[in-house]
Design brief:
- Residues 1-34 form the signal peptide.
- Residues 307-336 are annotated as: Disordered.
- Its EC number is 1.11.1.7.
- Keywords: Heme, Iron, Metal-binding, Oxidoreductase, Peroxidase, Signal.
- It is a single chain.
- It is built from 24 helices and 20 strands.
- The longest helix is centred in the middle third of the chain and has 36 residues, at 396-431.
- Residues 1-42, 73-78, 746-769 and 780-804 have low confidence and may be disordered.
- By secondary structure, it is mainly alpha-helical.
- The protein has a domain at 8-169 and 276-290.
- The strands form nine sheets. Strands 1-6-5 form a three-stranded antiparallel sheet. The chain has a three-stranded antiparallel sheet with strand order 17-18-19, with no helix packed on it.
Length: 804
């Protein structure tokens, strides 16, 4: 069903002609004279064939240009161009090109004939193209065993088998807002052009940089690492440059009004996101392709296909491990990411040291991101090694898959227990059902909850973290002293030399720096290094504007304006700019009035990061709404959700309790070099005071007994002081004993649902609050599946109809 990802010639020479014949035959067989407006059958046939042939020839020509461009670029070894690094960041998977060709055929035919006319002629040919390209799965393609999560995300939902799979379109809550209804950039409410994305960035995104007291910079790095698990749109081509400012279906250059403070060129190259066939492969407006799975499955570590996962595995020793490189500059020789031999844009000081390779191609974009990839690589290999010791009879595949299951579950637990509460605050946690439970198992999985990543989340909302990026990265020693010079952000892009920079502490000094450096406030400001020097070939040289790229990306994806999303979130729709005076950070409203002609024209990205944060949260109400609802579906729509008690993929009660011990502090302690002390909640700054008498120092225990955070985002009764990494009582370790093949698993008993007891009656953990209905204590007798849509009063839970 799935053709070779690298066989472009096979696809164009064999599959495509067959598809063209099928498409033509079906169209001619069902054509209706009422829609051809007095045109002959021959005319219609000729037009359709010309449209399809033009698309095919154009795709073949673009592929030749693309390959020629690679050869020319490799000859220019003395310089890295910003647009090339941007393309590396938005790198295409080979399989994506096949689906994009189908999408362009559908788009071209739709543009000429219209969706209604094509459907009246025949509803079948475009789905036939998708079928022959291997775009969708059927239930018969799913494996017999449902215990192990597929790398590509398919068959997670055994009713809707394509829900959440990689290489599928993002979900839309509204029809895309394109000026022509198909793919061209939206216009203002008066029918004229919107302000250019560079103008928007220049006018709005240049506030004074303000930091968020009490919160650490690891929030920013972790958010990027998380985003790369969920979204990867992919750039459409490499043919756009600043010498060609013409619009096309592939290029949407950002025009630069002169004079400009930093840029002398007339435009900034912008490559459009890869198009995708719609979920049902019917004609319609442009959709965008997500190259990774929608699920929180650590695909940035393991890849989003079996081919990628197999390439990343170390199968030579039969110990279930991922490939790695022994650190050549550290006396401990702990593993680093393996070298990416194909990444030619990376800076490195020696030929034997290159950018790191991981499950996501963006792992080397900046060293803070590389550091997190390295931690989770080491975590997997450490768990796999321990499983070998307790289960010597397990083979390589079993060891790898069990280690992967534990890493993914731990990853989900950290995201929902530490990161999301810090980001969204208590109100969103409760309203969106995101709060976990310290002892109970989960019975809220619903096959009708659509987990697919939404276009608005990928194209705008979860890009808020760009406002949190500082001008530099702190580097500190084992005692958290800034003995190393900070690393400038503009010097870090795709630069592998910092990974091997032992003189300045390498990755470990950066990891420790994340734990002491304050994170920048989400306030509508993006640092100058990102709005003028992004991916510059020389630090401080002319680069790209990330703020402008984000605005243009939202328009490229056809995202409706900010006001539309306010209304979708249940917020009052603004009638004029003054209605937003209390919504934005101080001074922002004047900048919006100066930039946009009408309040209905405002782009979501710039407005979202300019909102005043909600009480106890780091983001404003619109972003909290969009992000909260996305993570809601990722929890209730994932059959492999780590707490889910139903199905053979579920963990035992004992295994689940071990996973709940995992914190980001323990991950760092165990897998970064030279970690002596750490605060137990790493997303908050360490406190110097031990707090009030009796204050809890273990975040694990505190979170198990209290509802974190409180309404103001605080942790009353908790002292986030640095403690020894060796203190397993304060920062507990995950025990793998429940995974021993011969283990006898202890079942939980209940005391009115409020405590976890051992078989001899010892109270292990007391819970003050009763769990919501979707959590049930194992063995309570009330474990039947419940209808989520009837019990949790949240909008947009059921799979939306196709509005496109």
């Amino acid at each position: 069903m799935v053709f070779s990802s690298g066989s472009k010639s096979t696809w164009t020479r064999v599959i495509l002609p067959c598809c063209l014949i099928t498409l033509t035959a079906l169209l001619l067989a069902k054509q209706s004279t009422s829609y051809v407006h007095h045109r002959t059958t021959t005319d219609l046939n000729d037009d359709i064939m010309r449209t399809i042939q033009h698309t095919t020839k154009w795709e073949e020509m673009r592929e030749k240009i693309y390959l020629t461009g690679i050869g020319n670029r490799q000859k220019k070894t003395s310089r890295r161009f910003p647009e090339y690094l941007h393309h590396q960041f938005n790198k295409l998977n080979k399989r994506s090109k096949r689906f994009a060709m189908v999408a362009r055929i559908a788009e071209n035919v739709t543009r000429i004939y219209g969706k209604r006319q094509i459907n009246s002629v025949s509803p079948d040919p475009l789905p036939e193209l998708c079928r022959m390209a291997g775009f969708n799965f059927t239930f018969k393609d799913c494996p017999e065993s449902t215990r192990i999560r597929r790398f590509d995300g398919a068959c997670n939902n055994l009713v809707h088998v394509n829900a959440g799979k990689a290489f599928a379109p993002y979900q839309r809550f509204f029809p895309p807002d394109f000026a022509d209804g198909i793919q061209s950039i939206r216009q203002n409410v008066l029918g004229g052009p919107l302000p250019t994305a560079r103008t928007v960035s220049l006018n709005i995104l240049h506030f004074e940089h303000v930091f968020e007291p009490g919160y650490t910079a690891i929030i920013s790095h972790f958010g990027q690492f998380l985003d790369h698990d969920l979204t990867s749109s992919g750039a459409d081509s490499r043919e756009c440059d600043d010498n060609n400012c013409n619009q096309s279906p592939f290029c949407m250059p950002i025009m630069i009004d002169q004079p400009d403070e930093f840029f002398d060129k007339p435009c900034m190259p912008f490559v459009r996101s890869l198009p995708s066939p719609g979920p049902d492969c019917q004609p319609g407006p442009r959709q965008q392709l997500n190259q990774v799975t929608s699920f929180l499955d650590a695909s940035q570590v393991y890849g989003s296909s079996k081919t990628e996962a197999d390439f990343l595995r170390d199968k030579t020793r039969g110990r279930g491990q991922l490939r790695s490189l022994r650190d050549p500059v550290s006396p401990t020789n702990r593993p680093l990411l393996p070298l990416d031999e194909e990444h030619k844009d990376c800076l490195f000081e020696r030929v034997d040291r290159k950018c790191g390779l991981a499950g996501d191609h963006r792992a080397a974009e900046q060293p803070g991101l590389t550091a997190l990839h390295t931690l989770f690589l080491r975590m997997h290999n450490s768990i796999a090694s321990s499983l070998v010791n307790i289960n010597p009879s397990w083979d390589d595949d079993r060891l790898f898959e069990e280690a992967r299951r534990i890493v993914v579950a731990s990853w989900q637990h950290i995201v929902y227990t530490e990161y999301l509460p810090t980001l969204l605050g208590r109100t969103s946690l409760i309203s969106d059902g995101l709060r976990g439970h310290p002892t109970a198992q989960f019975f809220g999985y619903d096959v009708d909850v659509d987990p697919v990543i939404s276009n608005v989340f990928a194209g705008a909302a979860f890009r808020f973290g760009h406002s949190q990026v500082p001008n530099n990265f702190s580097r500190v020693n084992q005692d958290y002293q800034p003995v190393f010079p900070p690393l400038l952000t503009i010097e870090a892009f795709f630069n592998a030399s910092h990974v091997f920079d032992a003189a300045n502490g390498g990755l470990n000094s950066l990891i420790r720096g994340m734990l002491v450096q304050q994170v920048a406030k989400v306030d509508g400001y993006i640092s100058r290094g990102l709005t003028a020097h992004l991916f510059a070939d020389l630090p401080g040289g002319e680069g790209l504007d990330l703020g402008a790229l984000n605005v243009q990306r939202g328009r490229d994806h056809g995202l409706p304006s900010y006001n539309t999303w306010r209304q979708w979130c249940g917020l009052r729709r603004a009638r004029n700019f003054n209605d937003l005076a209390n919504e934005f950070e101080s001074g922002a409203i004047i900048k919006f009035q100066r930039t946009y002609r009408h309040v209905e024209d405002i782009d979501l990205f710039v407005a979202g990061i300019s909102e005043r944060p909600m009480r106890g949260a780091l983001v404003g109400p619109t972003l909290a709404c969009i992000i909260g609802r996305q993570f809601q579906t990722l929890k209730f729509g994932d059959r492999f959700w780590y707490e889910n008690a139903q199905g053979d993929q579920s963990f035992t009660a004992d295994q689940l309790q071990e996973i709940r011990k995992v914190t980001m502090a323990r991950v760092i302690c165990d897998h970064a070099n030279g970690m002596r002390t750490i605060q137990s909640l790493v997303f908050r700054e360490p406190t110097s005071s031990p707090g009030a008498p009796g204050a809890e120092r273990s975040f694990f225990r505190y979170n198990s007994r209290h509802q974190f955070p409180d309404i103001d985002g605080e942790l009353p009764g908790f002292a986030n002081v640095r403690v020894a990494c060796s203190d397993d009582n304060i920062i507990p370790r995950l025990s793998l004993e429940p995974w021993r093949s011969s283990a006898t698993f202890r079942r939980q008993s209940t005391d009115k649902g409020n405590s976890l007891k051992s078989e001899d009656g010892e109270v292990l953990l007391t819970v003050k609050k009763r769990s919501p209905w979707w959590y049930r204590v194992h063995g309570s007798g009330n474990e039947t599946p419940l209808n989520l849509r009837q019990n949790l009063q949240l909008r947009e839970r059921k799979r939306p109809k196709n509005n496109n």
